[in-house]
Amino acid sequence: MRAAVLWGLTSSFLVSSASRLYGGPGMRQNRRPQMERTLILCKPDCMEKNLAGEVIARFEKAGLRLVAAKMLRLTSTLLDEHYAHLKDKPFFPEIVAFMASRPVLALILEGDQAVARVRDLLGPTDSRKAAKGTIRGDLGTSNMLNIAHASDSVENAAIEVKRFFRADEIPA
Ligand code: ADP
Question: How far from each other are the two terminal CA atoms of the chain, in whole angstroms?
Fold first, then answer.
C-alpha cells in the first residue's frame, strides 16, 4: 500500500517535471522537444527606432536562444532571391529599396519549435492587424514597416540561415 502511494507520488512528480521541461501552457504536454533553428532579420525600421534589443529580449524571454548574430547591408541581388515569392507584387521594388536602406541585424535563434513560436511572437504581416502583445502589434506601423522578418517553415529556415550566414558563422 505504502509502495503504491510512493509510486503515485513519484510518477506525478516525473510527469509534472517533464511537462515543465517540454513546454508551457498551450503546448502539447509530454512530447519530445523539437529543436529547430530559424532566421530573423531586424528590419531597417527596427534598427532606425533603436528596437533591436527589445526584439531580442522578447525572443529570449520566450526561451529562445540566440546562436548567431551579425549586422549587414542587404544587396538587391540577395533581396531579389529572398523576396522572389513577391516578385510580381506591386510593392516589390519598394520592399527591396526599404530593406536595402540601412544595415539590418540578422539572427539565428534556436529552440523547441522555434520556427512557429517566433512567427507567433511576431504576429501577422500587417502590423495594424497584429494583436497587442505581439512584436509587430506593439512596435510595427504598417504592412511594410513590420519590424522583423522570420522564416515561415523549417525548410525555408534552413535555406535562409545559409543565405545570410557563411558556413563558418553558423555554430554546430
Ligand atoms: P511575412 O514577412 O509576414 O512572412 P511576406 O513574405 O508575405 O510576409 O512579405 C514579405 C515582406 O514584404 C513583409 O514582411 C512586408 O515587409 C512586405 N509586405 C508584404 N505585404 C505587403 C504589402 N501589401 N504592402 C507593402 N509591403 C508588404
Answer: 50
| Residue 167: per-residue pLDDT | 97
If you measure from the C-alpha of residue 136 to the centroid of ligand 1, how many angstroms do you get, rounded to a whole number? 12
151 pocket-lining for ligand 1 (C-beta < 6 Å) = no
Domain ranges of the chain: 1-32, 33-169
The C-alpha atoms of residue 47 and residue 76 are separated, in whole angstroms, by 19
Q: Tell me how far the alpha carbon of residue 32 lies from the centroid of ligand 1, in angstroms.
A: 33
DSSP 3-state assignment of 74? coil
State what percent of residues in the chain have pLDDT above 90.
81
The CATH classification number of 33-169 equals: 3.30.70.141
**DSSP-derived secondary structure letter, 36:** E
- Asked if residue 152 has its Cβ within 6 Å of ligand 1, the reply is yes
Task: Give the pLDDT of residue 35.
Answer: 97
Ligand 1 in contact with 143 (CB < 6 A)? yes
Does residue 111 register a pLDDT over 80?
yes
| Phi, psi of 147, rounded to the nearest 5 degrees | 75, -50
Q: Please give the distance, rounded to the nearest whole angstrom, from the Cα atom of residue 60 to the centre of ligand 1.
A: 24
Q: How far apart are CA 143 and CA 124, in angstroms?
A: 9
pTM of the model: 0.85
